[in-house]
Amino acid sequence: MDIPYTVTARPDTGVYNAKVGIWLFLASEVMLFGGLFSAYIFLRIGAPAWPGMLGGQLYKTSFDILNVPIGTFNTMVLIASSVTIVMSWASLMMNDFGKYKRYMGLTILCGLAFLVVKAFEYNAKFSHGLFPAEGNFLAIYFTLTGLHGLHVVGGIIVNSYFWGPGSKMWKTDPKRFTNRIEVAGLYWHFVDIVWIFLFPTIYLL
Amino acid sequence: MSDSTHAEDVKKHVRIYIAVFGALAALTVVTVAVAYLHLSIVPALIVALFIASIKGSLVAAYFMHLISEKKVIFALLIFTVIFLAVLFVLTISSYHDQIGGHIVP
Amino acid sequence: MAKNAHNKDLQVAHPETSHAHGEHHPELGFWRKYVFSTDHKIIGLQYGFTALFFLLFGFTLVMIMRWQLAYPGEAIPLIGWLFSEESMPGGVMLPEFYNQLGAMHGTIMVFLGVVPLAVGAFGNYVVPLQIGAPDMAFPKLNMASYWAYFLGGVVMLSSFFVPAGAAKAGWTSYPPLANIETMGQTMWLLGMVFLITSSLLGAINFLTTIIQLRAEGLTFMRFPFFVWAQLITSFLLLLAFPPLEAAAILQLMDRLAGTSFFMPGGLVVSGQVMDISGGGSPLLWQHLFWFLAHPEVYVLILPAMGIVAEIIANNTRKPLWGYKAMVYSVIFLGFMSFIVWAHHMFITGMGTAISAFFQITTMIISIPSVIILSALFLSLWGGSIRFTTPMLFALGFLPMFGIGGLTGLPLGLAPTDIHLHDTYYVIGHFHYVVAPGTILALFAGIYYWYPKITGRSMNDLLGKIHFWGTIICMNFIFMPMFIQGLAGVSRRLYDGGQLYQFAQPVLKWNEVMSIAAWIMGLVQIVFIVNLFMSIRKGKKVSDNPWEATTLEWSATSSPPLAHGNFETMPQVYRGPYEYSVPGNSRDFAPQNEPEEKVSAA
After folding, report:
1. Shortest Cα–Cα distance, A15 to chain C (Å)
2. What is the CATH classification number for the domain harbouring A164?
3. Of A116, C70, C72, C538, which one is least surrounded by beta carbons within 10 A?
């Protein structure tokens, strides 16, 4: 006896198993980032100045320490990748595997571009002696963006698998493969949403 | 997405995806532009979080198809949202209600 | 959820399951079948044996601690030579080692013992069978969940062997103490990240399984109470654990990257001002920690209540009294458990308004607990009770959990909590909930489902010796803690309170408690012997030896091990506890037998 509803939806709930699973996972992720955001608020309302004294220098606003244009560029990159991954799913729904490959490839490239830009940002901080231990602003910045970056890395690994070896399933079980892309997409959109909140709260406020 | 989604519907969706992308890009520009005005913290916070919430909702509603999702998913998410609010509100309000004032770092 | 309650008559099609299982599953090798298995029953057993090992290990730690409390400063006889000179020179325990034992006892019992046994073992083995599913929804995820738990356990155990030993800051790991701790604390945090990951994967799997893989006709209000308990438990794990994971990440940053999330500036350690940026808050850790750790209490107790409900209905041969009220209570309990956490923090300088809020929610949450307990008590009324071994343990649970719950009330009110906070009274309270409460229920579950797992029953006489020995010893261990706590003895004293004038009149109890703990250790040998001996020597029994109604008993005993619980997908016709229905041929009506088969005509 095989496990039912791995591909088709259960009639009374209307969804297949993996969709319930990924939403539950995202719910727990919401609480994970929620815990970190609440830590951020808790520390910030207790701070006399923000970003404050870092490495012996007083910073009045986050603009003085973080590069807003680069952050904006990275936001655009992630938003674009969100569009491309949903387009890759739509291509599969329209039975166009070649288009799927192109869109998924673009998504992976966007993810990598985001990470490369992020690495340059980190490096710029480190080279000025701005390490997490210097103060809570930097501690929050590195911890939150670092954890988000790890999520991006995870997403890139999963997407690359579905772009490469995992895409063989399209030939044997196209419906299930389409579901998998939908689930991978849901995760990737969530990573995008986290950044949509991270960017203004850390870079702009 | 239900099983009944057909290629025709998907084509309609694609147009929506492009429109949502435009909206997201525009809102990003707006939120950065407002930030350069250097408003005081309260209005700045309200504007930034308002725009972020709209952007987040657009992604969730259209890219993640929440707008046409099944009830069971909503049931799960409602509890998540409630407990997230609880975590924020109670933690922060307990910060503001301390005997002997706030922690001085 | 509510929607499904209306779908009683919905005909669910099972295209994938129409063919009988068997031929198309090739025989698996030893490693795939018993070690890296994806079958929920094997994983359940792996969880079970690992968790029982950790329960024994955690109990051993406390048996060593109890020597120090009963006879402070005296060398431990017989086993003293086993320990290194850094922990027990000449067999005499050092304070640092005592702190390690205390912190690791709490951590191991909660995160490696009771939760994995209650959720991982019973949940995995029983839930899919009770809802008529072929397996869990995500078998590979299930395997990953067990191995993450196993790794977490290995990390925790190995932390005893790093320089300066295991974590010493208590199971709550409060900063700043935890932040300035030795390497053992870093191991503790890493171990916790593994354990949290395991719990999250498990919770996702349980929820998906229960929502998606229910048998045809098994609506939510036809669930056995145990399934309800596991459903709510999984919700708590899913949503309460991530904030602790966040907190663990922040504490790791504090310890490894030198940040100050939990560290205020100007801290002086060993006469030196610490070189940190400061600006953090130790209270932040407490909020994030208790946001998990209060729901965790219900993670510990709800599966136990579920087990007890199953056993009581079965052994009184009548339906549970107030099944619906119990279900609504358990939902409400799960919800409320998220908004009571700061009652652990009344003496942190919390203001009166917020403290009033948490006192009110704490009093409210006691109501659903009392409803469930009352319903279980009332279920006994007028039943023809069979005093089987599992029933004895289940009956023992009721008053013990009652004591644990009622002694919690003074701790939930700030004025009394200020006196009782961090005394042995607190220890007595939560041990009554978790040890004579949950652990008795878990033993009940082992005796109850053992025939399903092995096809044989455990020895009844040994079971009864185990029950009476355990429950008597437990009360001798934990009842004196209330006396000591009310006298004001602090929970963290390495010598049990020798140096304090006010503690002198209650010190004599330390010896009583310790001797009771060691006798209880001996009694557990009876259980261990019974558990292993009965695998081969136990009395062979039928598939449904207890004449129970729920679905797991309609599967064959020791069901086949490769995703094949039932010959065909079961069809459910009725609620879970239709015992002694007038007009039926037998005194129980299994959930999957059609009406014409159970009625006398």
Report:
1. 8
2. 1.20.120.80
3. A116
